[in-house]
Amino acid sequence: MKPYDFKWTKFYENNSDFPYSELGLNLAEDELIICSTVIDGDNFSILTTRRILTQENGQKSSGDIQGAVDKLYGDFKGYKDKDFTYGVIQLQNGDELKYFIETGKASMIMIYGVGSLITTSKG
Predict the structure, then answer these.
(1) I need a surface site. Which of 34, 40, 60, 91 has the fewest CB within 10 A?
(2) Average pLDDT of 44-58?
(3) pTM for the structure as a whole
């Protein structure tokens, strides 16, 4: 299996590879999309070089990754019955932000993407 043949999760070499222009991300000039889990137009998480954006059932939430802390990498108990789970980060202001994680091998893309960005943002 190629690492980019997952149902919902993808990683990107550049922003032009991102196929979901209808999501209206409004990226900053030097902001790059790293990876995403896009279930449908109302349910997705997108990690960029600056922030994480999640929309669940049409409700958007986002937060700056600078100063964030990993809180939870998802509930993988019985994951064979579930297509996705949630990870959680705590933002610098104390708010928690959850993000979608596709279960199975695809889970490592969002987990490592978020974890690596948090680690590198600490300097």
Answers:
(1) 40
(2) 96
(3) 0.90
